Amino acid sequence: MLKVKMKAQLKVVNAKPEQAIDTWFANFTNHDNGDYRLICFPFSGGGANIYRQWTAHLSQTEVWALKLPGREARFSEPVITDLELLIETLAPIVKALMDKPCVFFGHSMGALIAFELTRYMEKHYGCSPELLVVSGFRSPERKSKKRQLHALPESEFVSELYDYGGTVPQILEHRETILLLLPMLRGDFKMHETHRFDPSQTVSCPIHALYGRADVVADRDDIEGWQKYTQQAFLLTGFDGEHFFLNTEYPRICGLIETQMGSVTSGRRRFRA
User: Fold this and answer.
1) Crossing angle of helices 109-125 and 175-193, rounded to 10°
2) Residues in domain Thioesterase (predicted)?
3) Which of 98, 191, 208 is nearest to 149 (CA)?
């Protein structure tokens, strides 16, 4: 019943995909005409603003980032806890953004969103990004090394967030703030922890998989598993750092993406490490 109610609400918001772009995506572009679009998806508890500073390191790129309900400017809106519903909602909106060559990038939960969105776009619209970059998330057929978090008691849930390392410790120690954020955080974890993965469909675009060398959430072996889900080239790149290595390594990540997309847009689809 809750899913039906939320779906109806989302349909009202997204009456026309072109009009819904500003609701669902932030455009951080600092120039007028990018050669392509980098469409970014956040990790659990993250928002669009984690990608705001990326545009300074991308000279030919429009940076678009997903604005999920339940955080930032959409804080008062219900959190989406069903990945299938999210993908169905996003697909026609993202289709409207794909009038230029696109890269999908997602870190942690965002990697799963980007991957499932790519599969949906190929199946229902016959189009896909030029490149899919999955970062800090195990290949989707694998079970998490950690127990499911979304239904844990508050104290245990907060303790697990410390271990992930992505939430500022001062926030976790401030009970009033945590109480405000808990519904969003639980909702995000529920979305990827309860997702039922169907391994039957691969993607037709290359996959570039990124991992942190000290990441205990998704290690190199977990990330290498993505190779089986592309019909094209696969590249694996490691970075110094733990699960949230992108917070410090994003300039290098941006450089890699721009180099790879330069090859694609010039008609030479190949990876350069």
Assistant:
1) 40
2) 37-260
3) 191
Residues of the chain with pLDDT under 50: 1-2, 5, 8-9, 12-14, 168, 268-273
Question: Residue 144 burial (CB < 10 Å; 0-12/13-18/19+)?
Answer: middle
Task: Evaluate whether 13 touches 95 at the Cβ level (below 8 Å).
Answer: no
Nearest to 149 by CA among 115, 117, 119, 108: 108
78 domain residue, yes or no: yes
The CATH number that applies at residue 254 is 3.40.50.1820
Q: Which of 44, 108, 128, 135 is catalytic?
A: 108
Domain residue limits at 209: 2-146+201-265
Residue 12, in any domain of the structure = yes
59 is catalytic: no
- What's the predicted TM-score (pTM) here? 0.89
Q: Encode pLDDT of 154-170 as tens digits.
A: 778 777 777 776 554 55
Which pLDDT value is given to residue 6?
Answer: 54
